[in-house]
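HUMAN: Mind sharing a backbone?

ASSISTANT:
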Amino acid sequence: MNPKEITLLEGFWRNRNQLLADVIIPYQWDTLNNRTEGVPLSHAVENFRIAAKELQGIPGGTIFQDSDVAKWIEAASYSLMFQPNHALETSIDELVRLIEKSQHSNGYVNTFFTAKGIEQRWSDLEMGHELYCAGHLIEASIAYYQATGKRVLMDVMIRYANLIAEEFGPEEGKLHAYDGHPEIEIALYRLADASDDNRYRNLADYFMNIRGTVRNKNGSINADGARKPKSRWFESDYFLADKPIRSMTEVNGHAVRAMYLYAGMADQYRRTGEPELWEKLTALWNNLVQKRVYITGGIGSQSHGERFTVDYDLPPDRGYTETCASIGLVFWAWRMSCIDVDSRYADMIEKEMYNGALSGISLDGKAYFYVNPLEITPRIATFRQDMEHVLPHRAGWFDCACCPTNIARLIGSIGKYIYSFTDTHIFIHQYISSETEVPLGGQNITILQETNYPWNGEIRLGLQMQRETQATLSLRKPAWCDAWTLLINGTDWNAWYLEKGYITIDRKWVPSDTVVFRLEMPVKCIQADSRIQGYGGKAALMRGPLVYCLEEIDNGPQLQELLIDSKGNNKVEEGLIQSFPSTTILLDGYRETVRVDNLYEPMKQNERKQVQVKAIPYFQWGNRAKDQEMRVWFRIV
């Protein structure tokens, strides 16, 4: 659903969207305009002023800096859907004016290659990110049109898309190539839907189908290329170009690239229904969830190449787990859910929403994690070369700032992941206080959802309609949930059945029907597959959808000395972390301190001191103090 069709009500995600409107969007706008002190200069808006010939100079920042502007426009557009803001809309309009003015007569838009000389366009398809930036600008233009009805940016990007269609394709004389970073594909599928023009769908199909079948224009990324790669980690599989998409069975390469490509594969399947594509998509999904994803939903276990490695290689302290990769997994999972309404896809979206992606932004909305480790000892991480990517505290911005604007657009678009429907069937995928109207049984039905999720598991649904109607309601049973109760109009309802992880109710609904769905949320110790090195004898804590962690500020230093009593008592407390709601867990545990004279000595029975251990939601770590120890996995007794 379009986020504009969802009204977020008081609760977790309305509060986050209010923060988006009040703090995150303005902070990012200032930063993109080089007005935030103490952070790396962005140059992103300045680059468009230069390209529009309103400012002298050369573009600054990364080669793909245009994409930061695009993602901010998309996030700001979703914020306008949430809450109209004339000043914000005026700022976007001014930015759109610059983008339009920077467009070349042939339709080309890119600040870096405008400065370099557009005759050099497409000269570095491996790392130049031109089509990647084009894709993000296309997605931004669609969101802004949906939010405001203004077509200027969309028309600009249609002209650009037409140029791409003229210069790329299977025909003789065109470029037989693709971008090293997938993104244009999912953007073109969205543009085809928004414009009802199949040319863009066909072009997206072309980019999907040619990938991994030919060498790119600079001849350096495919496995059959003559040029020796600079590093084994930057061979063709890094770019997801070592084989055609219909030969892929393992998630591989650069994690963000992989997620965008798999999302594109799902988009392609939704339009073609090709069985082989679905076979590969499910194989890739199974490989990811069974062997290559962290408990938080983080993906990409190696910093060099920001990439996947091999099955079960998920180190908690050195993993990369880029925020953008977790967001990309949301995009892929949602598309899989649109094809096959199976709860495992919505479960993954939930895991990212409350853990792996959300940890990438501070509670106050002004600081970010690019990398989201599951364990950190700052004095070690700041010294070791193989951990130089792991920051012990959030940063106000980055030289490569793809993650801040990406998490902003995820927060702003969160409403789209709540519901889906057919003429006779309503699916509730995510439990978020909200209101929407859907056509059902020949009439419009208003769905009212109220909940304090994820802090507790009670969800109340109201169905408002003009007349009774026969319909099916499906409520996702989260994978973490083992026990629940279901009430309709205050009475236990047992005439349900479980279908692909959804508790499904077929009945004749009448005006003002109410549904109460209560999910029990006990604290759970979660173990890992023993094939993951370093996790033996350890557990992680979960309560509901939230993964928990231990922080030094609550438990003192040397967190590795702590043990949790798996049979001891635990207590859930509601409270605040930095003025934001939270639930913390107090647990019985021990501290085992071993101090020996010679560093290594024969094993003996060590004394254990009883202590109370405090755990907080993982996404909230690093908000109260800088450079603190943190860990998700700990020893148990």
Summary: The CA atoms of residues 249 and 284 lie 5 Å apart. The radius of gyration is 25 Å.
